[in-house]
Task: structure prediction
Amino acid sequence: MLGFAARARACVIGTTAVEMAVRKHAVRLLVLDAEVSEASRAQWEETCRRQRIPCVVAEPAGEAGRRAGKPAAKVIGVTEKLFAQRMRQLWEAECNRMEVED
Result:
């Protein structure tokens, strides 16, 4: 789904681009790569909490950037409402599935 959003130009990729989009209140969902440092994760999660932006951590490490077409990207902001809603639904379904398997 992240690849589709990237092709549709419904997301911003990279720390600087995401920071600018967050300031403009354009980000609907923030996707953090699992490789992001604890300090960066805490900073982004605090920003999301203040701005009321849902935040998810993509597993396995490196997968989010690869799917968006930028393997080095650690932070991706989804700007389109419907893409953000669907990605969040899929992420929650995956989390629930993993809980049932455990």
